[in-house]
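Researcher: I'm preparing a figure for a lab meeting and need a structural model of a single chain. I don't have an experimental structure, so a prediction will have to do for now. The sequence is pasted below. Please return the structure as tokens so I can convert it later.
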Amino acid sequence: MPGTVRYLRLAVASLLHFSGYSFRLVANGLDRAERQLLADYCDSSPRLEYFDYPVSRMLDHGTMLNVLFQREASPWFAMADSDIFAVAPFEAELESALEECDVFSSCLPLSMPPEMVLAGFSGRCLETPGGLPLAPTYFSLYRTGPFRRIIGESRIGFEVYHPGRFLPELPEAVRTDDLLQARRLDTAKLLNVVASGYGVRFRHRELDALVHIGGISRKRGNWRESWRRRFRGWGDVTEARIEREVRRRSRNKGAVEPGSIAAQNILSRALRTPLSDYFTAWFEHLFDGAPEPRFTLPDPRLQQRVERLRKVLGELYEAHPEIR
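Model: Understood. Here is the structure written out token by token.
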């Protein structure tokens, strides 16, 4: 995505380092300089392939996935957000999971507890309100054979749908009230629902070796949000900052039971922007010598994951001069 290529090459370096897979890097709405930077980086490894779809601005996620799916010739169609990092080998665990399913998903954002299961049709949801399985598109793999049939017969792909404006004709078995009344069906969600009617097997598992920061490749594509830099410590993650975010997001929500899914959801949303700001500032510190941001949130799980990611990426940065 625009404004991210220089720093997020480090994510690709981590995936290459901890697996034997090959990766296609997709330029989506980049300017000429960033396209060249990405193409040059792909030339640095035989396991990297560069793909640039000729559009003058960013193509929405679902449409780009439709384009890429049509080009895929292998048994699996795999996708990964550009801010997903490997911190340990993950290939064996992933391969074993693929034996048991037709759709595999992983890598909920760092702001979410790994055991959290949201119901709905947004990007983070793992099931519909009625209990059908969903696969977030942050990191997921689809068996191409069954999905060529499903997409061909239903004419439904990975795109976003708004039932209030338009919804394709659906099999009676999946025309549920929760589906028809939803405001927005996020990327691939309608395809997931239709696939359940074909007997497709879904599996979601958080892979400990992969960390998805979340929120860095923002839709507006602006890495350097200049207004944030007017504030000292804009990249710091502190207890006071998160408490302010929680209060802001709790307004007009009524009483929320501590520890409930609703409370966890509010906290995870409150963490999202501070965590993406923190790592944005940390990459600028690593690459450009900017001041190092602080992480003082008293959350042992997050502290451990953040420190582990920082350590691995610092080592990879030193080992790969081609990305400096």
